[in-house]
Write a structure and sequence with these properties.
single chain; alpha+beta; three-stranded antiparallel sheet; 59 residues; 3 strands
Length: 59
């Protein structure tokens, strides 16, 4: 699955490996740790990811 995906991370991260990377899966988004690209991948609906990010932004 990960070979076909176009992973992206924030341009603000520069070469820092301590980031999350995201890839679009149609109406879903895959999220992984940039330090462990062979590790687990979380998959969210676009609405679910937006809700998570909104919640984190409130904290």
């Amino acid at each position: 699955m990960t070979d076909d995906l176009r992973w992206r991370k924030s341009s603000r991260s520069a070469n820092n490996p301590n980031c999350v990377e995201m890839a679009h899966l149609g109406h879903r988004v895959a999220v992984r740790d940039s330090k462990n690209t062979d590790g687990p991948i979380l998959e969210f609906s676009t609405a679910g990811l937006k809700a998570l990010l909104d919640h984190v932004d409130e904290k």
